[in-house]
Design brief:
Layout lengths: L8 H9 L15 H15 L8 E4 L2 H21 L5 H11 L5 E4 H11 L1 H4 L10 H9 L1
Parallel strand pairs: 1-2
Helix pairs in contact: 1-2, 2-3, 2-4, 3-4
Length: 143
Amino acid sequence: MADWCPPDQEARDRIVAAHDRNMLVEAGAGSGKTTAMVRRLVALILTGAGTIDQIVAVTFTRKAAAELRERFQEELENKFRAADPTSIEAQRARLALDNLDSCFLGTIHAFCARLLRERPLEAGVPPDFTEVYGAEEELLRRE
């Protein structure tokens, strides 16, 4: 009996293997987005298709971003431990782990704030702008 595959397995495989393009992964809760994204990020690193400082992965919630970062780090650590220590894959995984903070894994809100902080004058915002959340955001929205 053949192993069962989800009907969208071809798309899942493309997420992991298509290193020559950016990807938008949109699917419902519990569908495997985070797993697919982690596999893609790790594949980019291990194949040399990307470096840790070139990676950007954007999610909608802080909870999803934290889970993505945690699972990405765990998978890189697993690949590093399983690899021949002299292999290029082990070297790439170690370098990525040592520089994990140089990639961006976060919310769309945080990503946009980061871009604005990098180029505030071009964006027409004060260099010392602050983000608003919660009740303050709602108050400003009503005003």
